Amino acid sequence: MFIDFFYTLRAYGLDVSLDEWLCLMDALDQGLAENSLLEFYYLCRNVLVKSESDYDTLDQAFGAYFQGIETIDDIPDELKQWLAEDGLERDLEDMPDWAKEYDMDTLRKMFAERLAEQNERHNGGNYWVGTGGTSPFGNGGWNPAGIRVGGASRHRSAVQVAADRNFRDFREDNELDTRQFQMAFRKLRQFSSLIDAAPTELDVDETIDATCDNAGLLTLVYEKPRRNTVKLLMLMDSDGSMQEYSELCSHLFQAADQSSHFKDFRTYYFHNCIYDHVYTDPYCVNGRWIDTQWLFGNLDSEYKVILVGDAAMSPYELYSPGGNLDWYAYNEEPGIDWLWKFRRRYRNSVWLNPIPARRWEHAWGARTISMVRDVFPMFELTLDGLDAAIRKLMSGR
């Protein structure tokens, strides 16, 4: 049963095991989908999806196989506002035949025609995009084969949900926003031994053991608090080719700066490559810097280091004395030497690149990207990439 659906899920990248598939078939045999396509969708999500990052993959595969849920991006904002207001439930007994059921191609064509014709809000009725009523388009009403636009599914009868895929932001290959950065930084924690203080933190493992030993009667066990020992140094490429990634880098900085997970957090800036100085603000203005050697002498080797940049530059910026683009900051030593100095000083260091990894060998600057990769472990700025980078930092290798 549904063997083609199984292969569709696998083709879209959902890792469905044979045991999980047999479990889904058993659930169907027991009637847990209640003869409803929507209930079958939720059943698939509960049985086949192991992580919220795969919800979007399921949505796409499900929509492709059942010709169902798709995103319509050009719904006018005014229409969304009309639909956000409460509609009126209508008497549904006299729903006309034309409004009851259509194939998906016809529904799409009709929906586009309604969008072109409609110029005001509608409640109830059986024709316009609105709330309530029996029209195939809108929300808050009822139609056995319609397109829901916004709102919540009250009767679970829509064939197609004309809205954004709800779990798009959970995809692990997505670029990150501030909230996602903050969640990722929580993994970059390492606690010291217990500090000398009153036991105020719940010890979950010991509480479970003590409760079991006490015949199931809840027994709370507390321990002394621990202090986070992670010190983080972040260096960010600023200006030039990094301008298109400025918003993403801003999210990264805000998330790290607002984090309470670090014993110490420092941020400095550079342009394309690190030389004799690192800048104290993202404008990289001459004189607003500190000596890189001072940084080596004052920030010990226990700091975890994250360098952020596209690593795309002219090769002479890496390999030539005087390659620094700042006319007033002539570098006697090539940039690549300074990068190696950083790597030797801070063994726990990684490079995050906003350019997708699939383009590293073909993008402008591919040669210098390869050179930088020879110095630092490089990861792309996605959830998977950041997670791998943090694991590398915490591994101590």
Question: Which keywords apply here?
Answer:
single chain, 397 residues, alpha/beta, 5-stranded parallel beta sheet, 4-stranded parallel beta sheet, 15 strands, extended
Overview of the molecule:
- It is a single chain.
- With 397 residues, the protein is an alpha/beta fold.
- 36% of the residues lie in helices and 14% in strands.
- It is built from 14 helices and 15 strands.
- The chain has helices spanning 3-11, 18-29, 37-48, 55-66, 77-84, 104-117, 178-185, 204-213, 246-257, 292-298, 315-319, 335-345, 366-373, 383-395, and strands spanning 130-131, 137-139, 146-148, 158-161, 191-194, 201-202, 222-223, 226-228, 231-237, 264-270, 277-279, 289-291, 304-308, 349-353, 378-380.
- The strands form 5 sheets. Strands 10-9-13-14-15 form a 5-stranded parallel beta sheet, with helices on one face. It has a 4-stranded parallel beta sheet with strand order 1-2-3-4, covered by helices on one side. Strands 5-8 form a two-stranded antiparallel ribbon.
- 32% of the residues are buried.
